[in-house]
Structure formats: C-alpha cells, structure tokens
Amino acid sequence: MGDLMSKIYRWILKENPNLQLTQEIQREYGLHKIIADILSSKLNAQEVKNFLNPDLKDLYSPYLLRGIKEAKELIQQHIALKDLITIYGDYDVDGITATSVLYLTLKKLGAKVDYYIPERLVEGYGISEEAIDKIAQRGTKLIISVDCGITSVKEVEKAQFLGIDVIITDHHSIPKEIPQADVVINPHLPDIEYPFCDLAGVGVAFKLSQALIGEEAYELLDIVSIGTIADIVPLLGENRIIVKEGLKRLNETRNIGLKALIKASGLQNIEIDEYHVGFILAPRLNAAGRLRSAEAAVRLLISQDEKEVKEIAEYLNQENLNRQQIENQILQEAIQKIKETVDLNKEKVIVLWDKNWHPGVIGIVASRITERFHRPSILISLGEGEGKGSGRSIEGFNLYKALEYCKDYLIKYGGHEMAAGINIEKNNLEIFKTKINEYADTVLSDLDLIPSLRIDAKVKNEKIDIEIAKQVQRFKPFGSNNPRPNFLFEGLTVTKVFDLNGGKYKKIIAQKDKFVYELMLFDVSDKGNDVKIGDIIDVVGSIEINNWNGIESVMINVKDLRIKLPLFSYYKNLSKIMVEYQPEKKEIDKKVDYIIDQRGINNKWEYVLKLFKREGKTVVIVNTVVELKSLLRYLRKEKFLDFSLCNGDCEKENGILFFPNSLKPLKYYDDIIIYDIPFKKEIFYRILSHSQGKRIHLVFKEADIYYNLKSFDEIFPQRKDFIKLYKFIEEGNNILFKDHLHPQLNLNPIKFSFCIKAMKEIGLINVKERDNIFMLSKNSVSQKVNIEQTQIMQQIFSAKKEFIEFAKFIVSQKI
C-alpha cells in the first residue's frame, strides 16, 4: 500500500549571481556578499532598490487599471442618487477583507451600502442567480463584486434585466467569455497596460478605494495586507508594498475588530508579521466561512460596536478550534485510508472520499496531504447522490487540465493549475480515480513526485553571524515568490545533540573550522534521530534570529539534513585520480636538484619533527588517512603544534599537505617530505617537477603500500557490495542520496556510485538522476552477467594494478 516514509528532498542549488550587480549591491546597500549574491541572482538593479525599500509613493496610480475611472463615476452617480449599493464578496479571507475595504470606503463617502456573502455549503462559490433575486428584493441599484464575478455571465445578465448596474472587480484568470457588466476591472484582462497583474482580490478593491478616497485608503492597509497574505499571491511589486506598510499599520491598528481578534488570538504585545497573519489571524477569519457563514468575519472588520466585535472575535476563535478538530480528524482518517487503499508506488494522484467529511474543510486537508506526500490530492465529501471535492497540486501537474481530461465523469469542475474543486456522482468515483491517474502517468515522472528544496546560497568561508541574520530580515515580508532564503552548510561536525519539548524538537550544536552553529530541527524525522556526536553533516536551512532574555543569537532552522561520510572529499578526490586522472606530460620530465633518500627509515615521525624544528620552511605530503592520523597523534604526543594541516595553501612555515588539490604551495617551501606513496606515478613525478631548487626527502617504505590499498578498499566495490545494493533495491528502496550515507545501506557513497555505474552499464538496473538523488529500479536480466567485465570495473582494476606496479618499483629502485 505504499511507503509512508519521511520526506525526501531534491536539493536544487541556485548559483548564478550577476557578479557585477553583486558588487554594486554591496557598495550601494552595505550588504554582505552572500546576501548580495541572492539578490543579484533573481532581481535587476531597479528591482533590488524597490525590493529593499518598498514605499507607498511607488504604488501605481489606480487610474492605470482599466475600468477604475468608469467604476468611480458610476459609484458616484449612485451615491448622489442615494441608491442602495451591494458589495458581493467571497467567503474566503480575500473576499472577506475585500468586502470590508470597499464597504468602509463607501461609508466614508456617505453611500447607502450593504454586502452579500454567499454561504459555502449552501450556495457555493461566486455569484448565483438566487442571490441576485435576494439582492434585488432589497432594492439594490448597483452591485459591486469583489474577488469573484469574472465568470458570472448569466448572473450579470439577470441583474441587468432586473435594472441593477454591475461592476465586476476580480483577479482570477480570464475565461473565454466574460460578463457584459457595466464595468469589469481585472488586472489579467487582455491588452491591459497596468504594470502589476498579481494583485489579490482585496488588492483590486484597494485600487478602487484609492480612486474613490485617495490617500485615505492607506488607513485600510491593515485589512488589505491580511487578505493579500492569506490569498498567497506573490509578495513582490505592489503586493510587497501593501503588506510591508499594512503590517506596520496592523501593529498600530485603530480598527476595533482587528484589535479584538488580535487579543482573542493571544497576539497582543507581539510584533505581528506575515507568519502571525498567515497562520493565526487569517485562519480565524476563514473559519467562519468554512463551517457556517462568513458574514460574521465581515461584521468584525466593519463594526464600530466594542461589545459586538469582542463577541465575534471570541466566536471566530471558537470556530477556528472547531475547524482544527474537524480538520485533524479528517486528516488522520485520510492518512489511514492511504495506508489501506492507496498504492503510492502506482498511484500518482491521491483520490479519497467519505460521507462524513465536512466539505468546508477538505480543501485544507487536501493541502496537508499534498504537502505530506508530495503528490496531487483530491478529497471528496459525499452527499446523497453526489460528492463535492477539493484538490491541491504540485509543480508540474496542472490540476485544471487533469480535470478537463476527466470531464466526462464530472458534474462540474473549476479552478486553476494548483487548486480546484469538483462535483461528481457517486458511481463515477472509481473511474474518475483511474482516469486522473491515467493522465498523471503521461505528465509526471517518479522524480516529479520527490519534493524539491531550493537552495539560495552555499555558505563557504563566511561566518554567518547576527549581522548577516539581520540582513536576511530585510527580505521580509516573506511569502509566495519571496520565501525565506535557504542556505547550504557543508561538512559541519556535530558536537552536541539535545532533545527538546519531549523529543518533539531537536537542537544540534555543530562546528566547522572556527565557526559554531546552533541548528534547530522543528520537524524531527528519522534522519534527525540518526544524528549523533561526531557525525559530519550537510544541512539546508534558513538563517533566523533567536531572542532569549534580550540576547540575540543566530539560529539555523533546519529544512533537511544529511549525514556525510567522514573524509568524503578525500575519497571523492581519490576516485577521480584513480579513474579520471590525466597527466600533464610536459611537467613529468623535469629533473630535481637534490633528493635525500630516507626510504625505509624506521621512525618517520621523528624525522618530520626534526625538520619542523629546524630553521627553514618544511612541508610534508601525506596521501593516506592512516598515515596522517598516526603522524598527527605523534606530534600531539610530543606537544608540537606549530604547523598547518591543509590540502591547499598552508598558513604556517611548517605544513602538512594532505592529499593536495594543487602542488603550487610547494614553491613556498625549502624542504619537501614525501611521507607515503602517491596513488599515481604521474603525481609523484609532478611533485618532483614542482620542486626544482628544493630538498626532496623520501621517507616512505614498502609497508606503506598496505595503507594505500586500504584506501582503495574503502571506495572500490567488491562482489558483496553489488549483492547488498541489488537486494536493497529489490526490497523497494529506490531513492538514494548522492554523496551522503544511507543509514540502512551503510555503504561508502563513492563505492555506491561505482556500483551504480557498473550495474547500469550491464543492464541490471535503471538509473535516473536529478540534483542530489538517484532513483533506481531493477531490470530482469535473462542471462548471467559478469559485472567485472564492465568498463568502469576494468578501469578500477587497471588503476589498482598500475599503482601496485609503481609502488613496488618506487620503494626499491634507485631514483
């Protein structure tokens, strides 16, 4: 029935900054290079300026939005005639706030105004003809829709037939046919000249408010920001200005309803940001429309009655608790159904139904199912003869097109790429599930079902301190199209591990070079529980500020973590040298002036220490892990610490160069000690060629060959390794990480990579690669195969043979 495993991420590193722009940003705004790199990789110079300094003066004139001028004139006419104006809103937070903003605006102008919010469970989304009849009976002469109406062709015709003027304000996608309303305002209309098309429904209402009351509309930005955040529109451009300014006003709001909601939510005396709005305030406003009528939420935002708003705020708080209980119950039932009825190895879309599921909550649960399993999901609440469903999708799967493919089995459907709703007859449930998965098989690969974790920057030699953490805060407000940046930290050594809050959270103290980091895992999974002191880990996380008793410190909020093989870089470089190394022939024929032959010396340690203590600059070239550790132990025992350990440029006059990437540092030294045997004869002669005018000390001996071969065994696969990996795949484990240890497999990642190449070459397995993962599946092979005859294994055998021949020669022959 599928594996309910902890989430696996593809790590996607975005490293394409505009270096010239990076330097300009550093100079202009005083930002650290790593922060400037992130900005230059996604914005141009003008966009950076607007992004870092969002300002109300940069809002576009509302009159650039087609229909605003005509809507303003029509509204003014009806106000002058003292006609009743009805605002027709939606029942979500965007619709609730849009209704409230326009209501308060029209009240400022002395209009006779009311509003109408359809009930989700009875009337459904959008304008209905039944609602038009009710509104007409009130004596309404003008309807202004907010956050809906762009598809309401027949409903607008009916309103006009009844003598009602109609202004549509909406932000949803434009259908093939739009209503013939008196005015239609939508930033997505074709051939529109408005510079920013991603306004929320409340954003469009705000532009109309701007036209009607000018800068007085800014007083409503606290409400506008809530709807903008809740509707998950891109927090860039005008939306960024709206939310940034709106949050300032929200923290000092004079709206008594918002004050009451903030108090009821426990947010008084807290600086409210986009998180508090998105996860605490907005769900309470939404709860009313999900379970009953959203009218109470509008009343909260427009009322001037202290007693009323207090009662409504407490009511919304309770409704939110009810919603959470219902949501959690449905979520647990849905997960149980997945365990029992869904084969996640075959079904790429999760389709579930139940007669007891509340139709107002299934959309939220679908979001949580999609987030948890990273695949499209549709949850359906069954009624008497039909079901109402709500779906959520993932990147790369257009849910609306999928429903279009299945339209013969649906009563009706609607939505967009990432979210949609359906009505379906009960007897079509199974065939619908089959058909939508049939469509998914044509557009989604197995790799698409692995969630991606986008990395904005790799931390290299930077110290991530409180100053950089504060510079990250300048990216706020975070949200859609502007998520909190993720950073990659490689090669951290775990020094301490703490379980917090009964094991729900985990704190890890980790170190790299001189830098110490506090890592917090708020979503503790199997990988978090594997971490122990001494592990080398790679971490992806966001940089945040922890404030404890007034003391600020840097905290890394871990999104994903992988345990790394100790000395991974060493083994990776060794594999490249043995299999891919190409000698530079022009360098290996040069002669060396002075060789001091100490091959076979009994105590290499003492010899090194003697040279270290002598006048002059001495470097020791060490190639194997065992030899390095034994030398370091000896020097510590002798309490001699006056040296640098490096694989590039060493900082001190005494250096231990461990399996160096470059031989250029040799030019700095007078004495060069070749401590053990290099893995390639070409490297040995390259060392000599870089050492003209130097004293070369040879101190290796025949016994050292054993340690070289031990290093080979760490990465070169044997028959037992192939058997282990093949059985692992047979057991259904098909996703493995590049460059990281898999706790169940416990195989050196370099050896694992060699195994994969050989098994793929001979046809035993299929391999798909993307970012930091391999996806593996086994093939049925009819005839017996000899894996040792593969090209990669022949390269390995050849490299080992060449080394042994060279090593035997170099320890015994005169040089």
TrEMBL record:
UniProt domain DDH: residue ranges: 85-228
Any one GO MF annotation of this record: nucleic acid binding
Residue intervals of the DHHA1 domain: 347-440
Coiled-coil region: 309-348
Record Gene3D superfamilies: 3.10.310.30, 3.90.1640.30
UniProt entry tagged with the keyword Signal: no
UniProt keyword annotations, A-Z: Coiled coil, Exonuclease, Hydrolase, Nuclease
The RecJ OB domain, residue ranges: 455-560
Pfam families cross-referenced by the UniProt entry: DHH (PF01368), DHHA1 (PF02272), RecJ_OB (PF17768), ssDNA-exonuc_C (PF10141)
Gene Ontology biological process terms, A to Z: DNA recombination; DNA repair
Entries under InterPro entries matching the protein: DDH_dom, DHH_sf, DHHA1_dom, RecJ, RecJ_C, RecJ_OB, SSDNA_exonuclease_RecJ
Domain Single-stranded-DNA-specific exonuclease RecJ C-terminal: 657-795
Signal peptide: none
Keyword Nucleotide-binding assigned: no
Family: Belongs to the RecJ family.
Name used for this protein in its record: Single-stranded-DNA-specific exonuclease RecJ
Organism: Thermoanaerobacter siderophilus SR4
